[in-house]
Design a protein that fits this description.
This protein is mainly alpha-helical. 70% of the residues lie in helices and 0% in strands.
Length: 266
């Protein structure tokens, strides 16, 4: 996994058996198990502590649960961070956790999210591999908290280009997805179909199983029948296979959920 702890150029395809095992668990939504593998290393290694934090924060985004565990892991990672790069990456994770807490209505931490991402921007070098992730998360805040679509699109485009430059395929699947959602909102259905299709393709190629159902459901919104129904049915099958994850998508497909259907955090 990258130092951002959120995405990798080619997740799970390196030579490190630990990284491979963590990716396999993460990609199937087994975040607690993946975090447990990292726990012995996270006690003293800033990079491992940050990876563990990112896993537990991602679990919050997909399940709307586990907030205290993610916060505890984040504080531990912040305590270990020494360099500007490490402190910047930790601030980026704090921004994401605060954003997710606000988005899911757990607690309004919008000001904390903005401040943390601003701190990350000040600490990270211009060429840092964490920069594209930071741009992406600033786009999320602009889109969902600030209601600033122009700022969101610019941030997503920077993140998209940065992810390509750093070979971060998983992040690129997220930027494709959010740029496509903005194209859909603007009525540009061909571009929306292109973006959602690319996001789905990348997730399938990487084996990011837990992220495939959201990609299928998003693509269904811009495809005609009967393909749209087929895509939604496949998304529902995957959500059931994963025990109702993502929780907000389970709500779209008929299960209980407190997350608005138009929010697409994954």
């Amino acid at each position: 996994m990258s130092r951002s702890g959120s995405s990798d150029a080619q997740p799970g395809r390196g030579d490190d058996p630990l990284d491979t095992a963590v990716w396999r668990l993460r990609s199937r939504g087994c975040w607690n198990d993946a975090a447990a593998l990292l726990a012995p290393h996270a006690a003293a290694d800033p990079a491992a502590a940050l990876k563990r934090t990112a896993l537990l924060t991602e679990q919050c985004v997909f399940t709307a649960k586990g907030w205290r565990e993610a916060e505890d892991a984040l504080r531990a990672a912040e305590a270990l961070a020494l360099s500007d790069e490490e402190r910047g990456a930790a601030a980026c994770e704090r921004g994401q956790l605060a954003y997710a807490s606000t988005l899911f209505g757990v607690r309004d931490r919008a000001d904390e999210a903005r401040a943390a991402l601003g701190r990350a921007a000040a600490l990270l070098a211009p060429g840092s591999p964490v920069r594209p992730l930071l741009d992406f998360r600033r786009g999320l805040i602009a889109q969902h908290l600030a209601q600033n679509p122009t700022g969101a699109q610019a941030a997503f485009q920077r993140a998209h280009a940065g992810a390509a430059a750093h070979g971060d395929q998983l992040l690129r699947s997220f930027t494709w997805r959010h740029l496509a959602a903005m194209a859909e909102q603007n009525g540009d259905l061909p571009e929306a179909r292109r973006g959602f299709s690319e996001s789905l393709r990348i997730r399938e190629e990487l084996g990011f199983l837990v992220g495939i159902a959201p990609a299928l459901a998003a693509l269904a919104e811009v495809r005609p029948e009967p393909e749209a129904s087929r895509l939604r049915a496949e998304a529902g099958r995957l959500v059931r296979l994963l025990g109702g994850v993502p929780s907000w998508l389970a709500g779209q497909l008929g299960a209980a959920s407190d997350t608005p259907n138009d929010e697409r955090p994954t």
